[in-house]
Specification:
It contains 10 helices and 9 strands. With 252 residues, it is an alpha/beta fold. The longest helix is centred in the last third of the chain and has 22 residues. It is globular. The termini are far apart.
Length: 252
């Protein structure tokens, strides 16, 4: 499969969409992925309490999406990484495309740009960078900040190996994937997704809940990186891991 990835390559990739109360955007995301022609299956893991699963079920009933969209409903919140781990039970393709459910502006061309170099075997992972409004943030994302974007294509074998790390249970998933690829010396690239952005948590949920979850996500990512790069001190790693777990036991 060369640079020009044809839609017949859908047998080589499955998509995973973790979702928690994303009714405002999940329909468009799932339709874009399902209608792109690139995926054997689009697997949605929903652990929320809003109308998201009804929206996904409605899409799955559309004849052209029949057999492509699969919904996995979880009654309690399990975290992003655990949702991906659950979805992997249904993945059969050699390449997996991870996609957040809260993004806006995703088009098949964006998906293709991320998928193609992994499907072709040139890369082990390709990460999409969102189109943030701030010019400074764009520069930082491209040159300095860690690759924390939720839209990424990765060889399924590498994803299965990386996600065994319990640090990937929640929002540390991307950090663990980055560390795994780096430590394994795998080829990784990032691509800019023009016109693609996300709904920040304080705006899409109640202010208090959204702000709390955003803070928890930020701390989780920071602690995960600290844990991954803390060397061989098991006590430090163990303490950081317990701290991350405590954040999710204290409040959902």
């Amino acid at each position: 499969m060369k640079k020009r990835m044809k839609k017949s390559s859908h047998l080589l990739a499955d998509a995973i969409v973790p979702s928690h109360n994303e009714a405002a955007t999940i329909g468009k995301v799932v339709k874009t992925l399902s209608d792109s022609g690139f995926f054997r299956r689009v697997i949605v893991v929903d652990d929320g309490t809003d109308k998201s699963r009804e929206i996904v079920r409605g899409i799955a009933k559309i004849s052209k999406f029949s057999g492509i969209v699969k919904l996995v409903h979880v009654r309690k919140r399990i975290g992003k990484g655990n949702a991906v781990r659950l979805a992997l039970r249904y993945v059969k393709a050699p390449v997996t495309f991870l996609c957040d459910a809260d993004i806006i502006g995703l088009q098949p061309a964006h998906v293709k740009a991320i998928l193609a170099p992994v499907v072709s075997g040139k890369l082990a992972m390709c990460v999409g960078l969102r189109d943030k409004k701030s010019a400074l943030v764009k520069v930082l994302m491209r040159s300095f900040l860690p690759l924390i974007g939720g839209e990424r294509a990765v060889m399924t074998g590498h994803l299965r190996a990386a996600i065994r790390n319990p640090l990937a249970n929640y929002y540390g998933l991307e950090s663990v994937l980055n560390h795994y690829c780096r430590s394994s010396r795998l080829n990784v690239r990032k691509v800019f997704m023009e016109g693609v952005n996300d709904r920040v948590k304080p705006r899409k949920w109640a202010l208090k809940k959204g702000t709390y979850d955003l803070a928890r996500e930020t701390v989780d990512v920071m602690l995960t990186y600290a844990c991954l790069y803390s060397g061989h001190d098991k006590r430090v790693r163990s303490g950081l891991k317990r701290l991350i777990d405590s954040m999710y036991r204290s409040k959902k």
